[in-house]
Amino acid sequence: MIIWGSLVSAKQKCDSIRYSNILLQKTDYDAEYSPDSSLLYCNSLLNCIQTGKSSVYLPFALYYKGIAYHKKEMFDSAITYFTKAKNFAEKYNHDSISANAKIQLGTIYDMLGYSDSAGYYYEQAIGYFNTHADTLGIVKSYLHLSSSLIEYAYYDKALLYGLKSMQLAKQQSNKHYYFLTLLNTGNVYEILKEYDKAI
Q: pLDDT, tens digit, for every residue of 12-64?
């Protein structure tokens, strides 16, 4: 950010694709590790969108603002921005952002105990990821949907999606998600008292 200094006006900065890319990259990184900083970059990017030529970045800015609020456990604000991100992503044909926003919405609704709403958004995301052969997205969606179905006591369906996510994570050699899917599936087997399979 410092390299821009005061050499160009705010309007010129916002008209620059390079400047918007810098903001987006900082927003992306800090959303995970420094949500307060991310919110500042999000607001700068949103301001550029209003004053410059960066409207293509709107769904991304809204999405990462949702991520930052999620990290801060400000769930109402997170829902607001993920919903906005989803709507604008669909308007600008950023389907991947829309699908990821739906996963985030599903996750928050799960945390808040609204399993029906969570399941709805997970299934919406699965549709996109299946269409675009996005295996990691499918793994995440199946895993979240399985967890949501456990809350509803739909254990057979929870096991079905849990096993699907576990198989795909193993095929992708994704150790992180494979471990999570093992825990999830083991949880279902334990509830069903099929302890030999849970081990």
A: 445 544 555 555 555 555 555 677 777 877 777 777 777 655 677 788 889 98
Question: What is the model's pTM?
Answer: 0.70
* H-only helix segments in 34-134: 35-51, 58-71, 75-91, 95-111, 115-131
Yes or no: say if 27 and 33 are a contact pair by the CB < 8 Å rule.
no
| Cα distances (angstroms) measured from residue 127 to each of 10, 96, 123, 165, 174 | 41, 11, 6, 15, 21
Nearest to 41 by CA among 1, 78, 101, 87: 1
Tens digits of per-residue pLDDT, 66-95?
988 888 889 999 999 999 999 999 888 888
Length of the chain counted residue by residue: 199
Residue partners of 76: CB distance under 8 A and separation at least 6: none
| In contact, 24 and 57? CB cutoff 8 Å | yes
Closest CA to 101 of 133, 57, 64, 50: 64
